[in-house]
Amino acid sequence: MAYSHFKTWTGYAKARTLATQIFATSIPFPKEERYSLTDQIRRSSRSVCANLGEAYGKRFYSKHFAAKLTDCIGENFETQVWLDFALDCHYITLDQYESLTALSEEVGKLLTYMHQNPHQYIPRSKANDRPH
What is the pTM for the complete model shown? Predict the structure, then answer.
């Protein structure tokens, strides 16, 4: 699995599940939130998946791979901030908040593992870190 396609990575699968659940949960958000909270929470959660795809494409260069994973981690934290606001504004229940936040924490742990163990995701190459 070390060099498998990114869609087989557990981090991608869980991030996609989170983004899908956030989309469904945000459908009843008020219309006045359409271009703010609703849009932001959907974008940040989906961005984790998109950045993992980009990381896969850049996996031949460890610094690029690490940078994309850092973007994923940041987007996941942003998603948690939007979940805080959704709870504060009573757009989601405490149960929804806790469930989505727990899933986001799982995603974060997986992303951190990937960042700390890139050798499991990056093909070995002598030219891997050679300056361009």
Answer: 0.88
